[in-house]
Amino acid sequence: MDNSRPIASSGKRLGLYDNGTIRVVFFACCIIVLAVVLTSSISYSITKNAMVDKLKNRDMPYLVQSMKEKIDGRIERARETSLLLAKDQAVLAWVSSGGQDYAAGKMAQAKLSDIGKNYDYAKSFLASAAANQYWTEDANTVLDLSRNNPLDAWFYNALQSGQKVSLNIDYDRIYKSTFVYVNVLAGDVCQPVGVAGVALSLKDIAKEFSTDKFGENSNLWLVDNQGQIHLADNLEYIGRSVSEFLPADVIQQILGDMDNAKPKVLEYKDSQGQTMDLAYQSTVTTDWKLVFQIPRQESISILDSIKINAMIASVITILLMVFIFYFISYKIANPFKRALALAEEMENQVKLRTHELAEKNQNIMDSIDYAKRLQEAVLPSPNEWTAICRDYFVLWRPRDTVGGDFYWIRSLNATDSLIVLGDCTGHGVPGALMTMLVHSILNNMADNFESAGQMLEELNRRVQATLHRKAENKVSDDGLDVAICYIKDRRLEFAGAKIPLYIKRDGQVHVLKGDNRSIGYRRSKIDMDVSCHFWDIEAGDSLYLTTDGYIDQNGGTKDYPMGRKAFVECIAKMAPDTSLRQQQASFEHTLKAYMGAEPQRDDITVIGLAFQ
Question: Where are the beta strands (DSSP E) in 175-297?
């Protein structure tokens, strides 16, 4: 027997992988490649459909709705401002006299100047039918109007329209620019004495269009009922017809749709066969259409990069799987036990940290609850209130467990008393600490003053001295808004810092405004001058104080702040025989109805008082 011959292995290769294994690995790799390609294709298709769906059902309607609300909001505010201007007695007197009533003219010019300086309008104006003259917020700017001048046609058309409020877009010869004018007839609508109003800058609104739109080749237009473009993100399009950009059937659908409840979205093919997406909605204030148009290809252009990234990811995945198939046999390990041990250790750590956090959270909540009891303890009791007034209510609602609003009273003798309402910086625990500080300062200084103004000046000095003794501490800057009522034998002296006093007498609400600046801040003047207001209290008078938490609470259909006007209306609608406790329920009901599902955004305090 010849032992030198090698033993045959049935013709198969010796080694880690035989031919059968290689075929299995190759087949498995083909399956993986097919699965990755199929998965990538399906993912791409799903992503594309999701992006188109999101664009048509969320992004485009949201953009149109958002821009529509901005335009409606600005025009509605301009409309309200114009109505108030047209109803002003000084304005009516000046316009009726053709600019001859000097005293009324001074007040009317001050009203125009105030609107021009303090509000975001391009201009404010008055025009007299008696004098055929036009005035702006600049008292020296007077323009003669003529029926023969086409540029003045807006004025005579407004006088003859019979519409209290009208809008027009026109070129202003004085400012050499185009504006959206809100025109309000002054006086009787049938026989108006003139026109008052404000103007919004087209350039400013167009800038918002340019800021809010997305896409290089998209278009955002405000179109009238005739198809003319009045506002656009590109100023060159203003004044052109939308028929230059859209097919006739699309224009007919847009202009013929009278439903402005929500944005409408449609798609169409342009003259080059390119798919275009378009959303539109009518504005409430003008009945014009806000139109947004974007090429489909541009809106989903990000898919190109997704496609490339998906291909790269597929190649990497395939290579990784091949690596695993060929080399997994060299890596004998049991990571599962190690993973279980690690998971158990992590679970124990999580339990430990959770327990520690629960303990710390409970300690914090206990401290905050204790701080709440302390804050409530220093607030005036019912007996203290009844000692200074016949009837009262206090609506005190911190946003958190504790807050930065406080109220403080002091009965000085049988006829004299002090009432203070304050709104300190912040809310929660920081705000509560500020209230305790100010409360302590008031207790130390109240008996040394016989003037609300002097007391407010001294409070400003002491708060600054307490909070800002170290000049290097510039991390925070704290202070407060405050109102001080000093009642001396039925004569009220009021001094306020950004908190006014509301007084209801015989169904009318009077407002004593405080100074428009807070106290105690680093920037507050140490020797600030305080304005004082005086009021002789009569039987039946009701006094109201509120911090800005009630007025600034957002809600309603447009999620706007409630505002001082609504607060005054709430006071005015109270029946004369309604007790202040019943009035408190009315204030709470009004606040709750306006807030709806919105969260409370700030500390809220409202105080009502009535005297014998």
Answer: 177-187, 192-201, 219-223, 229-232, 264-269, 275-282, 289-295
Angle at 32 between CA 29 and CA 36, to 5 degrees: 140
Q: In what order do the strands lie in the sheet with 480-488?
A: 405-411, 416-424, 480-488, 491-497, 533-536
CB 180 within 8 A of CB 164: no
**Domain 379-610 adopts which CATH fold?**
Phosphatase 2c; domain 1 (3.60.40)
Quote the CA–CA distance of 501 and 510 in Å, as a whole number: 8
Distance CA 195, CA 183 (A): 6
Query: Cα–Cα distance between 48 and 50 in angstroms, integer?
Result: 5
C-alpha to C-alpha distance for 246 and 214, rounded to whole angstroms = 19
pLDDT tens profile 242-253 = 888 899 888 888
User: Max Cα separation, the chain?
Assistant: 141
Pairwise CA distance, residues 303 & 49, whole Å = 11
DSSP 197-209: EEEEEHHHHHHHH
Which helix (DSSP H) or strand (DSSP E) does residue 355 occupy?
helix 335-378
pLDDT band at 609 (very low <50, low <70, confident <90, very high): very high
Residue 502 three-state SS: strand
Residue 422 to residue 420: CA distance in whole angstroms: 7
Locus of tokens 């990755």: 36
Model pLDDT for residues 302-343, shown as the tens digit of each residue: 666 777 777 787 778 777 776 776 666 555 445 555 666 788
Does the domain at 88-203 match CATH 1.10.10.10? Answer given as no
Given a contact cutoff of 8 angstroms between Cβ atoms, the answer to whether 576 and 363 are in contact is no
Given its phi and psi angles, is residue 190 left (phi above 0), alpha (psi -120 to 50 degrees) or beta? Answer: alpha
283, 260 in Cβ contact below 8 A?
yes
- Which structure tokens are listed for 511? 């407002």
The domain ranges of the chain are: 88-203, 335-370, 379-610
User: Which stretch of DSSP H or E encloses residue 168?
Assistant: strand 165-172
Q: Is the pLDDT of residue 209 over 70?
A: no
Q: 491 Cβ partners below 8 Å, 6+ apart?
A: 534, 535, 536, 537
196 within 8 A of 95, measured Cβ to Cβ: yes
